[in-house]
Amino acid sequence: MSQGALAFEPEEELDPTYSVSELADAINGVLRSQFDGGVWVRGEIQGWNERGPHAYFRLVEVTDTGKAVVSVQFFAPQRNKLRSLLLKNGLHLADGLKVRIHGHLDFFAGGGTLGLKMSGIDPRFTLGELALQRDDVLRRLGEAGLLERNRSLALSLAPLRIGVVTSRDSAAWADFVHEIERSGLAFVLRLVDVRVQGATAVPEITGALRELGRQPDLDALVLIRGGGSRSELATFDAEPIAMAVAMSPLPVFTGLGHEIDRSVADEVAYAALKTPTACAAALVERVAGFLQRTDAVWSRIRHLADLGVQQSSAELASLAEGLRHQVLTAVSRSDDRLAGRSQRVGLAAQRALQQAEQRAATSAAALRRVPQRLDHEQRHLEGIAQRVRLLDPATTMARGWTITRTTDGRTVRSAADLQPGDRLVTTFATGTATSRVEETSS
Fold first, then answer.
1. In what helix (H) or strand (E) does residue 415 lie, and over which residues does it extend?
2. Would you list the DSSP string of 275-336?
3. Domain identity same for 34 and 102
4. Same-domain pairing of 108 and 191
5. Residues near 151 by beta carbon (within 8 Å), at least 6 away in sequence
6. Cβ neighbours, 10 Å, residue 44
7. Residue 320 forms part of a structural domain
8. pLDDT tens digits for 146-156?
9. Do 96 and 32 sit in the same domain of this protein?
10. pLDDT tens digits for 256-310?
């Protein structure tokens, strides 16, 4: 082959060829010329990541055809510059927050990626999005008839057994427990430790509310956190949390640290308080009020009981005095009747004895006239005297016999004359006794 066969054709003019770094510079040049004043971009923050003083995240938009993503670098100087603006508007940048940010596009040759260097933010956009989301959740809850559901539940008169949903390490939990313990009341607290911000906060809080709501030995639930930025508190605008509060079978108290705004959770709760301390104070006040009312009722019951006892005692004393008087009167009358009858019996005995003595004297005279009949008449006289002595009531009663009469003076000779309940006066040789018939038998 001849040398001439290896010769190249004359070179034609070609497009310029860039090195990789030259291409990166060219791209950045075009971006600076096309977007000289920077660009505003809206989307949702995802993958928030802080590395030292810098922060990195993706700005994401979900469309019908997929997901559009741009990487954002938020360097320390810009973060320091925007810190006061974010604080003033109550915003804390985190995952899930929809934002409208300003920045400059930059192609990073080292990673071959296009990014946005953030330099500004529109707080009104984020706040408006939060408000729209909040209003949309409230609208759906209203249409479902759930806004008043939890408030319609009956709260225990003394809600002492409380389920609490919050972060165990938070100031909210410490403040709540301090107020409860300061009351000195016998509260029983059951805590479910959850995150109150971040990507896992909504499912954790929702699950905790549902778990505690299924426990039959609780009186009420408490959902608390110690305040925060508007964007952080937007966690409690989430529909799952609002549904869990509204559908809870127990009354739910909220104390989320809002000083101005009310979250959706507040709107559907049984009672919404500003702070965890206020939430605890509301429970303490209800229990203390119940105890005060209970003490007042018991004092009234005790007062009425004392009056009743005093009145009954007075009536009983009056009845006893009347009964004593009646008994004394009846006994006195029986004694009088017995004394009269005893006197009459004694007189009759004396007359009989006198008559017997007279007859004895006559008989003795006759006997003296008729000596042979003396012995016979003497024995007859002695027999008569013995019978007279036996007829003497005092002699009979001295041997253990008694005389029983009714209270009206009738002598009782047979059990058939008596009825259960009859009162009797029994006369002994010495003294009397009063008794009552319980039963009779023939």
1. none
2. SHHHHHHHHHHHHHHHHHHHHHHHHHHHHHHHHHHHHHHHHHHHHHHHHHHHHHHHHHHHHH
3. yes
4. no
5. 269, 270, 271
6. 16
7. no
8. 899 999 999 99
9. yes
10. 876 666 888 998 999 999 999 999 999 999 999 999 998 888 888 887 888 888 8
